Amino acid sequence: MLNKNVRGSVALLALTLALTACSKGSDGSANGKGPEATPAAPTIGKPGEPVELLFLGSTDKERFMREHGNDLLKKYPNLKLDYYLLGSTDDEAKGIMSIQGALTKGLSIDILHVGTININPYLIETKLAYDVGDLIKKYRYDLNMLYPEAIDVLRLITGGPLYGLPVNFSSYKLYYNKDLFDKFGVAYPKDGMTYDEFYELAKKMTRTDGGVQYQGAIINTGNMLLFNQLSAPFVDPKTNKSLFTSDPRWQKFTSNYVRFLQIPGNEKPTDTNLFIKQGTAAMMLAAVDLNATWEVNWDIARAPVFADLPGVGGGIQGSIYSLASTSKHKDEAFQVISFLASKEHLMDLSKAGILTVLNDPEAKKIFGTEIPWLKNRKINLAAMFPDKYAPPYLLTPYDGLAQSALNKQFGEAAAGKVTDVNTMLRIAEEETNKAVAERMAAKK
């Protein structure tokens, strides 16, 4: 199913020190284990005495139960989940509840599932954040089995503590329409292409034929920004100022991207429907999931890379299952979270075609093997995984404002209204700083 556009992202101050500590547990051990660690409790609750947990999640209940909940209740039959979709307003009849609504009612939230960009507003600012370091030791949860980048980004945001565990993430890849490449006699995209090679291929595939305009490359700008392979941060967390003109990575990033917007005939470079529905786009670079409803004859190649960063794909941006400070059942809630992030469950998710943070070669081999509609298709599923993930950058609460400002300039470039990259970055920086100042003033 299509992912929602992801939002948000960040600054790499003291990255070396942060990454040195990232793979350690709160006790300083390499994997979160301590010498006094005790075995995990075998069960949650007792027959006739179920433990009820209030769970505010990022998907509707039906999807959560299908992907996670049914396995969870099978593991812990005496567990009862009071599950709601986390929303900005309350509509309990539709299974939606906001954080403020729950707190106003005096409810004890146990678990929240939030995107990394929302750790600050949803956990820290609400005082719902709770460091699970001691519980990681107590239940012997091994952080080493996860991609280190997935833990690094969480520690960068919080300054060290872990407020929960990651499970799944998104990453961008290059989808392509095999029929269009066959039609025009052009070789399919290859894994490991550089952006220069991708650009030349996009130009070659952008053409008019039989009165139909074909797009060479559709690029999801939001994904490119959030997962940027250069690990370029958006806002300095100390000054709350944009880094668009002071960090040279943005000059490199923007120059690379803008040229795709300026290919004659590639007038709608962000319209994914041209690939997904109309079949008139040859390639689509995006972080959307495998989808059974697309009518085009598609396959996948790894996302292009910068020539000086061979093998480096996008960063890991996903979500966190967090233990709320209000929980009266912290041990039980952590057992739920640690099951969702267990090797057993993550392997099952991999089979179902869901990207997980499990750093295990076997997870890549079995990825998508239980997707029914892929049984008779040969898809390059290995392209879902780059050789390396880009290092994380520090997310700030204002990254969305910065992304919006730069996106606006990309739109101006696509329309031919601005062509100079330095001008684009300067205007985007000015608009970001103004928007950040206004938001900060509104909070006072």
Q: What is the typical, i.e. mean, pLDDT?
A: 88
What number of structural domains do the residues give? 2
CATH fold type of the largest domain: D-Maltodextrin-Binding Protein, domain 2
Taken from the alpha-carbon principal axes, the silhouette is globular
Radius of gyration: 23 Å
Cα separation of the termini = 40 Å
Highest CATH level, the class of the largest domain: Alpha Beta
Q: Mind telling me the CATH superfamily name of the largest domain?
A: Periplasmic binding protein-like II
Structural class determined from secondary elements = alpha/beta
Main beta-sheet strand count, sense and barrel state = 6 strands, mixed
How helix-rich are the residues, as a percent range? 25-40%
Strand fraction? 15-25%
Low-pLDDT stretches are 1-41
Structural overview:
By secondary structure, this protein is of the alpha/beta class. It folds into 2 domains: 13-169 and 317-366, D-Maltodextrin-Binding Protein, domain 2; 173-314 and 391-443, D-Maltodextrin-Binding Protein, domain 2. Helix content is 35%, strand content 16%. The protein is built from 16 helices and 18 strands. The strands form 6 sheets. The chain has a 6-stranded mixed β-sheet, sandwiched between helices. It has a 4-stranded mixed β-sheet with strand order 10-13-7-14. Strand 8 and strand 9 (212-214) form a beta hairpin. Helix 1 (15-22) crosses helix 6 and helix 15 runs antiparallel to helix 16 (421-443). The longest helix is centred in the C-terminal third of the chain and has 23 residues, at 421-443. Mean pLDDT is 88; it is low at 1-41.
